[in-house]
Amino acid sequence: MKSKITVQKLKIVIQTAIQKSNPALFKAIKIVYSFQTSEEQFADNTYFHNGQGFTAFDAEILSSFARQIINWETGLSKFRQPLSKKQLEIARKKMIKYWKQLMPMARIKLEA
Fold first, then answer.
1. What is the pTM for the complete model shown?
2. Rounded to whole angstroms, how far apart are CA atoms 63 and 66?
3. Domain residues of the chain, as ranges?
């Protein structure tokens, strides 16, 4: 019988993955970016305070990072990596607070 995955355990798993793994960080950024409305994505801003997507403070920079990652993954970037070392540092610091939005996907993956 599988043991129940607690919210605290999920928080630790998600935040650790964001801190240690570039692919996990990139996926997390893209997932939270996908929660932004199309208007918010276009404007790099937050208009709806619905607990989904980036905060108003983070929307501009993290939306920019999301587009850079998507462009890199689809071959539209001229860079060798999707984000620079400094951008990775910034993204890791900002993304750990979005663990609750990532929790449903993490739970599905861990319980599979």
1. 0.86
2. 5
3. 7-111
